[in-house]
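Folding follows sequence. Below is one example:
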Amino acid sequence: MAAPSDLTARNKVFFNGIRRNDFVIIGRAGMDFFPDPPGTKTEEASFFQADLGGSSANIGAGICKLGGKASLVTVVSDDAIGRFCLNALDRYGIDRRHVRSVGGEARNSLAVYETRIKDHQSVIYRNGAADFEMSDADVSAVDYARYGALITAGTVFAAEPSRSATFGAFQMARDANLPIIFDVDYRPYSWPSPQVAQEVLSRAGALSDVIVGNDDEFGFMAGGKQKGLAKARELAATTATLVIYKMGEKGAITITEAGEVKTGIYRVDALKPTGAGDSFMAGFVSALAAGHDLHASVLRGSACAAITVAKPGCAPAMPYPKDLDDFLASHPGPS
């Protein structure tokens, strides 16, 4: 358990690191595949759009579109799909010097999802995922001191050797005095069992300075949804600089040692339910880096999420600064 003075010291590390607006992100890059035009069911589609996918790559794309810098650490398959992902990373301006290609039977993840709310279907292909091949050597090659903060999402912990490698990266980031930002992002289909997921995600949360998750995810870590908010508060009081507890349409609670702040959401006519979490993270850290206070940064993250769910795709739907400014100027405000 961290003493209050330790938390205060980590607070300074966190905010100083974020202000550099240069992030190392650990996790997957994949292909997103969505039927066109919007509203089309997958089984009835004749045409599909393809773009960059994967939670960590999406966060990187959002940060770069908002003017920051992001470097991805992951593994992609040495085939046409892997090269598609590499080209997409280049297109969004994500540094891929630490992205390794691997041959054999490993394959890039593929997400097929619909641009529709009613009866929405998402099909995720994660068998033999290439990104789970990320090793200690991959994360050890990173010069963590050149970045301002480390970001990752929970899927990176779902299998070995990626799990152990990421915990190693956490330690190296700590040694370099980098804050660690963790999006719980629990995806049951990636894990060998709920019990393993609960233990590993709880361990990762205890090592992180910032933890972002929804009420279901914190509830899962705590052993019951009704215990989720208490779990978030416990982490904020002991090991984390701040915790963001998301509640869907009910908004979010941002918890720090100074107290709690509730924020609403920006209501829009959503086209799909996907991409909101990744866009929120990109908008949140980018706003902090730009000098906005914590409350405003959470709201700007929420605005980015709203913009993204109102357009097709995930990375392509994420806003540029003008998109975000125009949205905030024209929207009546959070509920």
About this structure: The longest strand covers residues 69-77.
